[in-house]
Amino acid sequence: MERVAKQWRLKPLPDQDKVKNLQSAINASERLATLLVQRGVEDFDTARNFFNPNAKLLHDPFLMKDMDKAVKRISAALEQGEHIMIYGDYDVDGTTSVALMYSYLRSYENQVSYYIPDRYKEGYGISIDGIDFAVDNEISLIIALDCGIKAIEQVDYATKHGIDFIICDHHLPGATLPKAHAILNPLQQGCDYPCKYLSGCGIGFKLTQALNYAWDKDSSEPLALLDLVAIAAACDIVPIINENRILVHLGLQLMQSAQRPGIKLLLENAGKLEDDQLKRPLNVSDIVFAIGPRINAAGRMDQGITAVELLCAQTLKAAESAAKSIAQSNKDRREVDMQILEESLTMLDFNPEKYSTVVFDSSWHKGVVGIVASRLQDFCYRPTIVLTESNGLISGSARSVHGFDVHAAIASCSDLLLNYGGHRAAAGLTLEPENLDAFKAAFEASVAQHITDDQRKPLLDIDIELNLRDITPKFFETISRMAPFGPENMRPVFITHNLVNANGTRGVGEYAAHLKLDVTQIGDQKSRIAGIAFNLGDHAERIQTGESFSAVYTLELNEFRGVKSIEMNVKDLRFTDS
């Protein structure tokens, strides 16, 4: 089954005066200056801060609306010996948020507990069951993280039972806000906080910073929690720019030097450790593909609270039981994920006149439908929703394509839904079974009306064109310092034309599905580079016959038997005659 062909888009060159000025200011090459200006780095001071992210550059937490209210309420609760409950969602952002806030507050107050809702019994966000648990345990303050911005009825219910809410959420607010004691959300009206797209865990971190300041504690104390913030930011796909980039950078540094016991066991399970040490420095991709899925597996297959237990454990021994449970949940998740993907692929409609994909099976596991929705896009590249049945209702997850607001498309069908939420790129929804067919039609019509032709093809954004001779150790070292990479600060993508085989190109892997490249460039036979192109092994024969081609790629450091070399990671290629 062929995947949809990618469209290549070379970014327009930025203002050349800005490029030249930056070149002069930091003594950089034109290509490096171009990459930096593309990312909004236009002068010496901005470049210095960009290449040296540090805690001094973090924003004042009290710039966030309601921060003073939140600090005063928590301080009063601690002074009066109130019982505080930390409430968070069952995904990575939610569980890391709870672990962060619980780890911080338990140093000052014994009467702190945490609660993670059951994905299947309670669903996403604040639940009445969770509030009833708080009532039964004489809790008078709930700090909700990564959820709550639309929990109007639930907060009213809690208020009637004498429970105050502090909401720390980063999702889009609705027209009406809950009547919480304080709401920390940079996206709410009247909030002037400079960084609008923190993760839920990031907002929790800003609250710990504010508490630390108010209590006149060592300012470095909250920084010990940044490993959790880095995990949340990477897995929740927030923009890795400005303050987020600093938080992720510092969090990754923390993970290199002093791994939290639970995280160390996750890395061990993922094969990232050798002789109890990291095989190489961690990056955002390691978090997204090794740590995140394992934390998520707890809530998808069993109980999200297991992830919090793991992340809060203070010794390896204390973390072992939760780590084993999560390893098994992750194994189960992979098996279920692949089974549902195979079944859903048989349902795909490849009619080019279709604008969306909505698939449903009542037997599918609710915990993995979001993963399957993401995978389905490899095959037909459309706004995709995967639905299953749970407790007599149909619910599921949506994933979008580049630039298309899937949340808005779902919102346009709200008369057919019981509830929905999320953001432009991903969303969740619940509806009555009898509305399924009507929803499919309405969603298809909404997507068809608003999606553009460009949004219907996978996009490869290319930063700049390089010749092979431009790829020097110094150039590679400098672009590596542009990390951590992520949304809005992606690893630079390059294009090189007129590449030809240098006699080492071949298919590798099972069924020779991948392509091991060894290439040079026409007109510059002295420049030579190796590379890997996953799932492009079918091009090997044409390259071996000497046909020239263009490649779109990133640069990575490969180490084999102690020898390090710069290599291409090819995302796509096209033959010159194509």
Explain the overall architecture:
The protein has 19 helices and 21 strands. The chain is an alpha/beta fold and 578 residues long. The model has no long low-confidence stretch (mean pLDDT 94). The protein is 39% helix and 20% strand. Among the domains are: 7-11 and 459-575, OB fold (Dihydrolipoamide Acetyltransferase, E2P), CATH 2.40.50.460; 61-220, Alpha-Beta Complex (inorganic pyrophosphatase (n-terminal core)), CATH 3.90.1640; 347-456, Diaminopimelate Epimerase, Chain A, domain 1 (Roll). The protein has a 5-stranded parallel beta sheet, sandwiched between helices. Strands 9-10-11-13-12 form a 5-stranded mixed beta sheet, sandwiched between helices. A 5-stranded mixed beta barrel has the order 16-18-19-21-20. The longest helix has 30 residues, at 316-345. Helix 9 (226-235) crosses helix 10.
Offer a quick outline of the entry.
The protein is an alpha/beta fold and 578 residues long.
| Overall residue-averaged pLDDT value | 94
Largest sheet: 5 strands, parallel
What is the fold-level CATH name, i.e. the topology of the domain at 61-220? inorganic pyrophosphatase (n-terminal core)
Low-confidence stretches: none
* Strand segment tally: 21
Distance between the termini: 21 Å
Structural class by helix and strand composition: alpha/beta
Shape: globular
Helix segment count? 19
Strand percentage, roughly?
15-25%
Percent range for helical residues?
25-40%
What topology, given as strand order, has the largest sheet?
3-2-4-5-6
Global Rg: 25 Å
Write the CATH architecture name of the domain at 61-220: Alpha-Beta Complex
CATH hierarchy class name of the domain at 61-220: Alpha Beta
